[in-house]
Amino acid sequence: MGTLVEDAVVQALREGGGEVVRGYVAGCVERMAPLFMGLRARAPGRESDLDFYAESVRDLWCADRPLVGAAGRVRLLERFPELRPNEEGITDVADTYAFFSVLSLRYALSAHGSGNVDDAVSCGHTALTAMGMLDQNVAGAALLAEERRLQFLSPGGDATALRDASAAAGRERFHVVLGRLHRRAPS
Q1: How far is CA 2 from CA 7, 43, 102, 121, 123, in A?
Q2: How far apart are CA 156 and CA 51, in angstroms?
Q3: Which domains, ranges and CATH numbers included, belong to the chain?
Q4: Residue 170 — φ and ψ, nearest 5°?
Q5: Which of 28, 33, 112, 144 has its CA 20 to 30 A from that of 133?
Q6: What are the counts of helices (DSSP H) followed by strands (DSSP E) for the chain?
Q7: Nearest 5 degrees, angle CA 92-CA 52-CA 43?
Q8: Distance CA 6, CA 30 (A)
Q9: Is the pLDDT of residue 107 over 70?
Q10: What predicted TM-score, i.e. pTM, was given to this entire model?
């Protein structure tokens, strides 16, 4: 299976080393985090999952060193309902974007802990796939193009500027998904 991540980004990750990989995945997950946090904020029994997700996103921004205990965090994350498919699959809008958010964090934690470029590319691919789907379902959305732009700027870019831009992009995504949910809600 191919990846949506631009070849230039993949090359920059391969040449940049661990710190570049860690900064890249932190940005990808920062942009996806509002989807999980917002879509699961009122879900009963998910308080510890929300705390874990938020803590992990925060810790990913420590790009100067690999995340201690990343493999253990991946194992905990793999227990999330979003990564445990059922017979019906994922059909709900909120569940779809929560799934992509959790999957991106899963790849990011792995990449952050190991510096593995393939996991970083999978993280980026997950974000691009989610934004492509959202663009297809929301008239006039250009979230895929924005994700591509931010991924391209990520390797070698200013970490503070990337974090700020990623947080703003994440909020925009959440509002687009909320709008989609409200349009689909029964009257």
Answers
A1: 11, 35, 21, 11, 13
A2: 30
A3: 7-184 (1.20.1590)
A4: -60, -40
A5: 112
A6: 8, 0
A7: 35
A8: 19
A9: yes
A10: 0.93
